[in-house]
Automatic annotation (TrEMBL), chains A, B:
UniProt cross-references to Pfam families, sorted A to Z: TetR_C_13, TetR_N
Keyword Transcription regulation: yes
PANTHER family from the UniProt entry: HTH-TYPE TRANSCRIPTIONAL REPRESSOR NEMR, TRANSCRIPTIONAL REGULATORY PROTEIN
Superkingdom of origin organism: Bacteria
Ranges of the DNA-binding region feature: 31-50
Keywords: DNA-binding, Transcription, Transcription regulation
Protein name, UniProt field: TetR/AcrR family transcriptional regulator
Residue ranges of every copy of the HTH tetR-type domain listed in the record: 8-68
Length: 203, 203
DNA sequence: CCTACCGATCGGTAGG
DNA sequence: CCTACCGATCGGTAGG
């Protein structure tokens, strides 16, 4: 709104780089000095875009949210409501993590663990993003139940908790152990929960 | 081994405080200045215990491992092998997270997300701890299968992945959303996986 | 957008 | 274990 329209694209590019750095080193590890060096501009020039370190951090969170919308949510929502949409949300998210759209894996996983115990605007922004994602999975599951594609005694919030747990743990294990098998484990767990298959004899 | 035996307990106390601070602010956010002020001793006096920031960080990881052994693993291993031991490991871990033995929730969750994309001795130490925990859950599940207390087609590594996912996600959601329900969701998911109950009509 | 700077804090050292 | 420092880097400002 109160903007520098001419610099809007430059600002977006700066924030995309900031999100890459923060996915590895965290939003505190994201310093004005390192970011300005990476971008090849002066520290005070960079600072002028944001006015404070905290505003840079908040703007980076908003930019990373856009990336997830583009990479995961918008494509998955092209699938009509039902269990296939839930599957697509999970599959897109796992691809987003696995292909390292951010070099440190999921941006939100990295920074939520950094701020989840530190009250302030960053924690609130991250909590809001997490609620929106959980809400989207929950309501997509509820639609699939209404359509008769999932068992009618399914608790959508409970199942959403479980699916998100599988996705986040795949991200975490694959990063820490350098073990891409974690994604196959998550896919198998998700397939079992959504496909009605009871046993583990899946593939 | 090559020790200052007289200072051993002081060192342990220092590291217990360091683990508390790091669970909230991370192992980078753990600075010699803040830790020395918290403890009421001089920065160089504190420094002398460790010789480098990285050694302080590594020693803090080892001290936090002891806490988990005392709070979670040793008590659970008093239960004989079988599904009740698996249940006890999960229940103890959830209590350890829920009661905020560390003020920032599970110490390892906080610092694994910090270092999982940053090669070096800290990432290796955390990866080793994570492998040991995953291995303990996996072998405890395998024992329960051998005892006929879990279905014989159970894949222990797969089930361990799923149980750990539920535990970590409960820790994460409870911290970020201030929502203790997350622990009930994890308990329900774990109960369903270990108790053979299919439906969600659990409590 | 830049150069040049500010006080505070960082990890670490000298010397006792 | 302490006081007193070191150079580097932090977020941020002055002035252009």
């Amino acid at each position: 709104m109160a903007g520098r329209p001419r610099n809007e694209q430059a600002r977006r590019d700066i924030l995309r780089t900031a999100a890459d750095l923060a996915s590895v080193d965290g939003l505190d590890g994201l310093t004005l000095g390192r970011l300005s060096t990476t971008l090849g501009l002066s520290k005070s020039g960079l600072f002028g875009y944001f006015g404070s370190k905290e505003e840079l951090q908040l703007a980076t969170v908003r930019r990373a949210t856009e990336v997830i919308l583009d990479e995961v949510i918008t494509p998955a929502l092209r699938i009509p409501p039902g269990v296939e949409r839930v599957r697509a949300l999970c599959a897109r998210w796992l691809d987003y993590s696995r292909t390292r759209v951010f070099p440190g894996g999921c941006f939100f996983f990295a920074v939520m663990a950094e701020f989840d115990a530190r009250p302030g605007p960053l924690r609130e922004a991250l909590a809001e993003g997490s609620r929106a994602w959980t809400g989207l999975i929950t309501s997509s599951i509820a639609e699939a139940v209404e359509l008769g594609e999932l068992a009618e005694d399914t608790d959508p919030a409970q199942l959403a908790f479980e699916l998100i747990a599988f996705m986040e743990n795949a991200n975490s294990v694959s990063l820490l152990q350098d073990d891409a098998d974690a994604y196959r484990r998550a896919e198998r767990a998700i397939g079992n929960r959504l496909g009605g298959r009871r046993s583990v004899i899946t593939d």
